[in-house]
Amino acid sequence: MSITINTLDDIEGMRIAGRLGSEVLDYITPFVKPGVTTGELDRLCHEYMVNVQGTVPAPLDYAPPGYTPFPKSVCTSVNDVICHGIPGDKVLKSGDVVNIDVTVITKDGYHGDNSRMFFVGQPSILAKRLSDITYECMWLGIAKVKPGARLGDIGHAIQQHAEKAGFSVVREFCGHGIGKVFHSEPQVLHYGRPGTGEELVPGMIFTIEPMINAGRREIREMPDGWTIKTKDRSLSAQWEHMILVTETGYEVLTVSEGTPAPAAIAVADAVPA
Ligand code: MF3
Ligand code: CO
Ligand code: CO
Q1: Alpha carbon nearest to ligand 1 atom 3, residue
Q2: Which CATH number covers residue 73?
Q3: pTM of the complete model
Q4: What gap in Å lies between CA 93 and CA 66, rounded to an integer?
Q5: Which of 61, 71, 112, 193 is most buried, by the most CB atoms less than 10 A from its CB?
Q6: Within a 10 A sphere around the Cβ of 79, how many other Cβ atoms?
């Protein structure tokens, strides 16, 4: 087993997948309002992917070893749900925070995986701060990406920032290699020690998708076989981008018109492509 070094053709295919994945999040943004159900958000994303983009929603019927097939087309993770929330009849109300995680598969077979946080109506001060710090964590991780850096540099940057804010890093789920396969090597941990782990090489593509809890880091698995919540019922936030290692640094692949600007905290020492 080893980490794929993508060809120029693969990279071009992944740029397209990344843009399409990001455009689904752009599309759904105005629908995230009080009164909407997570099932309706799923339905809208599904229709957009299948009928407008001609992409396939990767989560639908996705069944890694030990899992039942995921029954919906996106993940909607509300408040204390860390990840893999299953859309359904839950009605969103003002003050809720929701992560929507979209993965498209293009006609050429490439995956575009990304997620953003959304505030339903007005967020609490804590929810806003948790989402902001998590976004900064993702970007501080991204800013470490360049040839010769190591995976532990990414994890360390994320962990430091989260814990300095008094928050905790979820350990059970991580970023991942991605391409024609949804989840592959490497595992991109969101915690770690600088100078440890696999060395980054141009052509690698992986996600960075920190899950940060306002309280303790422990998780609880729900009986539906998918939904993961915080054990202490504290809020959790997540952001996700797909990143290409370039000759000089990184390229974010999951970009479109609606992509939020990079976190200012990470731009100073960042080495963009
Ligand atoms: N998109 C998620 C990730 O970032 C994976 C979701 S798998 C699903 O890796 F089956 F829950 F959709
Ligand atoms: Co992912
Ligand atoms: Co994802």
Answers
A1: 113
A2: 3.90.230.10
A3: 0.97
A4: 34
A5: 112
A6: 20
Residue with the smallest CA separation from ligand 1 atom 11 is: 84
Q: How many domains does the chain have?
A: 1
Do the Cβ atoms of 249 and 272 come closer than 8 Å? yes
Our mutation pick for probing the ligand 1 site, out of 113, 241, 253, counting the most ligand atoms within 8 A of Cβ, is 113
251 lines ligand 1 (CB under 6 A): no
Q: How many CB atoms are located within 10 Å of the residue 258 CB?
A: 13
Ligand lying nearest the CA atom of residue 75: 1
Is the distance from the beta carbon of residue 80 to the nearest atom of ligand 1 less than 6 Å?
A: no
CA distances from 116 to 67, 98, 105, 199 (A): 24, 8, 18, 28
- C-beta separation of 185 from 150 below 8 A: no
Domain that holds residue 221: 8-267
Over residues 55-106, the pLDDT tens digits come to 999 999 999 999 999 999 999 999 999 999 999 999 999 999 999 999 999 9
Amino acid identity, residue 27? Y
